[in-house]
Design goal:
CATH topology: 2,3-Dihydroxybiphenyl 1,2-Dioxygenase, domain 1
CATH superfamily: 2,3-Dihydroxybiphenyl 1,2-Dioxygenase, domain 1
CATH class: Alpha Beta
Pfam family, one: Glyoxalase_4
Number of helices: 4
Structural class: alpha+beta
Protein name: Glyoxalase
Radius of gyration: 15 Å
InterPro entries: Glyas_Bleomycin-R_OHBP_Dase, VOC_core
CATH architecture: Roll
Helix content: 10-25%
Strand order of the largest sheet: 4-3-8-9-10-7-1-6-5-2-11
Length: 179
């Protein structure tokens, strides 16, 4: 448990080839099924306070309560993922904490000296922020709001992993507006 935000809920890995990464995780690690979105619909994206149009592919699966996120950048828009790759890194880039009280938790982190580096929104009540404090690769903290459709998607992904038999290892993201 983090003294700031509770339990880590997600590990985010930056990869060069998301299809190969999903194949590795489901065949070698037994984790799945993977819910894959070739272009995540990010709204209000900001990096260092400036707006950009990002194109990221994301795959999500659970291993118990812990969600694994695979991320492949598809354009050169500024992002912490791109920074991580330009520094020569691949693999674990961030840990995420989920919140149902985004504003209060964001204020708490900022009071602790954390500053916003990258932020946006995925669906209604699906805000996220990555803080600009990294002691070594893989230690970026993301705060992710899970009140709206994104939270329901995360519940669906967790439920699909419970007792998963290996069948249908890669599935499309459902339309967030339907959740």
């Amino acid at each position: 448990m983090s003294r700031f935000l509770g339990a880590i809920r997600q590990l985010g890995y930056v990869v060069d080839d998301i299809e190969a990464a999903m194949a590795h995780w489901h065949s070698a690690m037994g984790v799945g099924p993977w819910f894959y979105n070739p272009r995540v619909p990010i709204e209000d994206y900001r990096y260092d306070g400036r707006a950009y149009e990002v194109h990221n592919s994301v795959a999500l699966a659970n291993s118990g309560a812990l969600q694994v996120e695979l991320i492949q950048t598809r354009n050169d828009a500024p992002s912490m993922y791109r920074d991580f790759m330009h520094a020569g890194h691949r693999g674990l880039q961030h840990v995420a904490y989920w919140t149902r009280d985004y504003d209060a938790d964001l204020a708490r982190m900022e009071a602790e000296g954390f500053t916003r580096k990258m932020s946006g929104k995925v669906g209604a009540n699906g805000r996220f922020v990555y803080f600009d404090r990294e002691a070594h690769p893989g230690t970026v903290i993301e705060l992710s709001e899970v009140m709206g459709p994104k939270g329901r998607l995360f519940d669906l992904i967790r439920q699909a992993s419970d007792g998963w038999d290996g069948f249908d290892p890669i599935r499309p993201f459902p339309d967030l507006s339907s959740l």
